[in-house]
């Protein structure tokens, strides 16, 4: 293991797959003790075993970030177990297709609840502990959809635009307390994010998009997470865009 993050404690939401799982593994490899939250506890348990087999320390927390009490509880459980929280990676996210006309409002609300409010709940719970210790890193996983909109992904685009704005305002709010806030915006990344989409045709389209030649791997996004967290304390990378080299439109 490297030691660039030795002594630090991280909580990664949405850690059961994709970018969240890769971030948890990368943070552990960099020396951090890692708590991981998600709804799929069996996957978290497998990650804990993998991290511990490599000599690291990890904690699995079954949690739904869209539920305020559950999201807050994950932060509290991290602090109770490890005694502190230095890094919060908000990676939990979902996508659904559709515009406004005829939209499924339950799906729209769920996207906003997970992608935006889940991050708000986790940040709100973590900030007091970070302020008390005078240091912290909050890294919110957004998307290229946060810089441009798509009519067929209205809820997703809206949630990521809102996440970006919320994060920048929060950076201004907490920076004087030594807390850094970064919005990390991946382009096409090979994850299973499309699996939860209810529209079969759009699900197939999204799967093709995230598995196309040149798509970024979750591990490559995770390397960006470690890079941001390992920077000198007075440096705040507030916006980090990571896109496939061979497809600049992704």
Automatic annotation (TrEMBL):
Keywords: Oxidoreductase
Cited InterPro entries: KR_dom (IPR057326), NAD(P)-bd_dom_sf (IPR036291), Sc_DH/Rdtase_CS (IPR020904), SDR_fam (IPR002347)
Domain (Ketoreductase): residue spans on this chain: 8-162
Domain of life: Bacteria
Matching SUPFAM superfamilies: NAD(P)-binding Rossmann-fold domains (SSF51735)
Record-linked PANTHER family: DEHYDROGENASE/REDUCTASE SDR FAMILY MEMBER 7B, DEHYDROGENASE_REDUCTASE SDR FAMILY MEMBER 7B
Family: Belongs to the short-chain dehydrogenases/reductases (SDR) family.
Protein name: SDR family NAD(P)-dependent oxidoreductase
Species in which this protein is naturally found: Sphingomonas naphthae
């Amino acid at each position: 293991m490297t030691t660039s993050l030795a002594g630090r404690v991280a909580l990664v939401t949405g850690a059961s797959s994709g970018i969240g799982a890769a971030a948890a593994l990368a943070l552990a490899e960099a020396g951090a003790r890692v708590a991981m939250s998600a709804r799929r506890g069996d996957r978290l348990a497998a990650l804990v075993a993998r991290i511990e087999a490599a000599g690291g320390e990890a904690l699995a927390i079954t949690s739904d970030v869209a539920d305020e009490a559950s999201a807050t509880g994950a932060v509290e459980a991290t602090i109770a177990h490890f005694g502190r929280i230095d890094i919060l990676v908000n990676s939990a996210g979902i996508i659904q297709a559709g515009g406004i006309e005829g939209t499924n409002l339950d799906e729209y609300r769920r996207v906003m609840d997970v992608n935006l409010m889940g991050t708000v709940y986790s940040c709100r719970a973590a900030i007091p502990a970070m302020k008390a210790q005078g240091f912290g890193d909050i890294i919110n996983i957004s998307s290229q959809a946060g810089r441009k909109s798509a009519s067929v992904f209205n809820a997703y685009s809206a949630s990521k635009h809102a996440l970006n704005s919320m994060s920048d305002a929060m950076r201004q709010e907490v920076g004087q307390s030594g807390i850094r806030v970064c919005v990390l915006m991946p382009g096409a990344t090979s994850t299973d994010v499309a699996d939860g989409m209810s529209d079969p045709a759009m699900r197939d389209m999204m799967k093709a998009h995230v598995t196309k030649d040149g798509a970024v791997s979750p591990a490559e996004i995770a390397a960006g997470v470690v890079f941001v967290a390992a920077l000198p304390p007075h440096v705040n990378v507030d916006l980090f865009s990571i896109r496939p080299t061979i497809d600049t439109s992704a």
